[in-house]
Amino acid sequence: MSEPNTQRTVLVTGGTGALGQAVACRFLEMGALVHATWMHKGEVEKFREVAEPHAERLFLHQADVTSEAEVQTLIQEIADLSGGVDVLANIVGGFVFAPVEETDSGTWNRMMATNATSAFLCSRAVVSHMRERRWGRIANVASGPALGRGGANMSAYAASKAAVLNLTYSLSEELMGDGITVNAIVPSMIDTPANREAMPNADTSTWLCPQQIADVVVFLASEAAGIVTGTAVKLATAGRS
User: Fold this and answer.
1) Helix (H) or strand (E) holding 138
2) Is pTM beyond 0.90 here?
3) CB-CB contact of 21 with 50 (8 Å)
4) Residue 99 in 3-state DSSP?
């Protein structure tokens, strides 16, 4: 991405959410062709407005990336429109905070599907194209509890993100010889409308802006980061004024 004449094709899952939008827009600013998935129609028009200066390079796909069939269809659509995927940013995810006795199997399965299965299915689907080109970048989103020793009242969430982290490490080893890097970012609290609504009395001065995280994802997708793989990039809280 650091070479202005190299137009890459980027897939951002969860591309219409707060973090997904920031990542997608940053890649658009860099000149990439960006494909973004969405599930909530209310987010689509707002995203189109934000990305309007780059509308000719933005493609939006309604897709459930926890579904194997829908992921296969998505990747075929991208191949037909833009060739294969060069950069995969697995941004889609979910969070739940609850004591273990209040966490039912449906919640557990939803966390695993949304956070871990989605990253697995999308990564598996794009690898063949990346291997053909001997170039590829995969960026996943882990979490502090996954990197550390878990967290109280978040067993399902922490376990699913730990799966993402181990997927990252495993794929990085498997794909290292193919010119494909696989890394994870580990953000602290992200400043999103949803988080502000959920925690109205919180001190947001140390929360990370989605745009700050997007800059890290773009770097990991760059030529300059070609020697960086199998890492969990811990993002510190930002002391903003």
Assistant:
1) strand 136-141
2) yes
3) yes
4) coil
